[in-house]
Design goal:
Helix 2 runs antiparallel to helix 3 and helix 3 packs antiparallel against helix 5. The protein has a five-stranded antiparallel beta sheet with strand order 1-2-3-5-4, with helices on one face. The chain is an alpha+beta fold.
């Protein structure tokens, strides 16, 4: 393995290790979790607004707009597609949406959890080459799956994890610009 590839693997392993832990405020880390309900008429708006407030207050203004869009797409997927597992649903009960933020000086992790264990349909690559996709009309783009495609384009990494209690969480990671974090935290 060449030095460049080894450095890339080391950075990925470092980020992955931080995903498991709650950020430490003494090291400029921030953590927030929200529980919303899919049936509320303003769930996506509340999630977007809380994303902006949390990130701006935590000094991560450089990622606010992309993070708001990602949260909106992931929460929208829960609202429009998630069907709770039988053991997690109650007749007439609201569907739960959990939004988690783990902010480190180098990374932002965002997780959106629901009560549906079905795996998300993560797009595999581009439907069209990036140069061509920008010139195509909306009519020829796929009818579904665009939300996760947007998430994949904006985030550094996207994955999902089944939860022990049932349901799943779709996670994404943003690598923060080191020049911004160096100015903010030193």
């Amino acid at each position: 393995m060449n030095a460049k590839k080894a450095d890339q693997v080391a950075r990925e392993l470092d980020a992955f290790a931080h995903w498991f832990a709650a950020p430490d405020p003494s090291n400029a880390g921030h953590f927030l979790t929200l529980t919303l309900f899919a049936e509320s008429p303003d769930t996506a708006r509340v999630a977007r607004d809380m994303t902006a407030v949390f990130l701006r207050d935590a000094g991560a203004g450089e990622v606010v707009e992309d993070a708001r869009l990602v949260v909106s797409e992931l929460v929208g997927n829960v609202v429009n597609h998630a069907l709770p597992d039988q053991g997690l649903s109650r007749l007439g009960g609201a569907r739960r949406v959990d939004v988690t933020f783990k902010l480190w000086p180098k990374w932002l992790f965002i997780g959106v959890g629901d009560e549906d264990s079905s795996p998300p349909l993560l797009p595999l690559g581009d439907a069209f080459p990036p140069g061509l996709a920008g010139e195509l009309s909306e009519a020829v783009l796929p009818d579904n799956g665009r939300g996760l495609l947007i998430v994949q384009r904006l985030a550094t990494a996207v994955w999902w994890k089944p939860e022990d209690r049932g349901g799943k969480t779709v996670w994404c990671r943003f690598d923060r610009d080191s020049s911004v974090t160096d100015r903010t935290h030193h």
